[in-house]
Prior knowledge:
Elements: E1 2-6, H1 10-23, E2 28-33, H2 36-45, E3 51-55, E4 57-58, E5 61-62, E6 76-80, H3 86-89, E7 94-99, H4 104-120, H5 127-138, E8 143-147, E9 153-157, E10 161-167, E11 170-175, E12 180-183, H6 187-193, E13 199-201, E14 206-209, E15 213-218, E16 224-228, E17 236-238, H7 243-250
Parallel strand pairs: 1-2, 1-3, 3-6, 6-7
Antiparallel strand pairs: 4-5, 8-9, 10-11, 10-14, 11-12, 13-14, 15-16, 16-17
Domain HTH LytTR-type: 149-252
GO molecular function, one term: phosphorelay response regulator activity
Domain Response regulatory: 2-115
Amino acid sequence: MKTLIIEDEKAAVRNVKAVLEQVAPDIEVIDVLDCVEDAIDWFRAHPMPELVFMDIHLADGSAFEIFEHTDITCPIIFTTAYDEYALRAFKVNSIDYLLKPIGEEEMRAALAKLKQLRTVRPAEPDLRTLMRTLKREENYKTHLLVPVKGDKLLPLAVNTVCCFYIADGIVKAVTMQGGEYVINRTLDELADCLEPKRFFRANRQYLVAREAVKDISLWFNKRVIVNLQVATPEKIVVSKNRVGEFKEWLTGSSTSY
């Protein structure tokens, strides 16, 4: 895999090369650049590499300036000593954001993510669509702002939620501790912004978390009832045409809603 490194610290370049040699010796570093200006010129004069390792703070400015002057279509792994640029990094073709110094474990995980991207849609040569898939995964909500007493908003951690349900037109979240919060989103909107590996749309009324499922009960007409760790206002019934999909999701074999 032909790889470009954009980094202005010699020690960091040595770090990336050394780790790559250990975990992915088949990767070929075709060039090393240390500034924004050289990077812009390089992309204008050379074919697109297959991968770029890019520091954010370069000798003559921010690496994000490069994207303002050239169209980079290959995947990028950002390498930096700062973590405050992660969100901005994923607005470009970034597939990972590694903090210096980079270890072998972090590098293996980043390259495994790249490999997964390349196999998601093998018939599609343009990685941009695959990047959008990854960015959606990276942007699944981890917290939701919920109204509490007075005029305050509480950041509710998604991993503490047992289920979301709708009653009388109001959507509520039930936490593992049994607390309830009003959510200013529809269940459809929640299903779109929450990680599908974690949440399953059991029916029109309920979106349930895998970690909260205590067991399932067989129901008539080949349906099942989902029993959660906390009490729910009504039985959570999965229709017979979705039972197979639900069981696959529950055992980790599917990521579909």
